[in-house]
Prior knowledge:
37% of the residues lie in helices and 26% in strands. By secondary structure, it is an alpha+beta fold. It has two domains: 137 residues, no CATH class; 58 residues. An eight-stranded antiparallel β-sheet has the order 4-5-3-2-6-7-1-8, sandwiched between helices. Helix 5 crosses helix 7 and helix 6 packs across helix 7. The longest helix has 19 residues.
Amino acid sequence: MRDLWRQPYYVVLDIENKQCRIVKRLASIGLKHLKVADIRSSSKGSVKHLLELDPEEVKKIPSELKVARARGRRESKSSIWFESEGCDVCNTILSCDAFLVSGKSIEGSNILYNFMVPRFEAFKQIVSAMEKAGHKVTVLKMGKFELTRGILTEKQERIFWLALKGGFFDYPRKIGTSELALKLGISPSTLSEIARRGTRRLLEHYFRNETS
């Protein structure tokens, strides 16, 4: 894992984002609520957003606006990639090496952004950039990874903490093995091996009386 993620934070922000092109575009075709599961930079210089929609909502979106249906997700029938120029919020999150867990429109132009940042300085940079751009930002929740140095190694603890906060253990998963590995700068096989060894340690500790 990159040293970049040695002291990660989990953050929930309520941001008044009047620039969001996706919210405006979906509202124009009758879709009032937005849920974003991921954002990624595009080779075209734009931003791709993974939208989670009901099957009937997907039918309302013009085909020229859809990039592709999501693959490798149990909810793929109602998840599509939507490409746009991106706004200050998405571009800043991407530029600070953070990764989005979810984004959800709640009222008017307000959107709840749940994301992970590799260090506290990245969180401050994101908030500062948002406020300078004229967005009203409210911090609703912030949690720091705290190393316990107990059953797991430091690397295993960070992997499991990031996976838990990122939705890897949710049903359906918010992020898969390949996606999480890409975010953290390691290969999927390395991530799987770290998780396997960590799981073994946890199980050995849990069943220590039976295995001793």
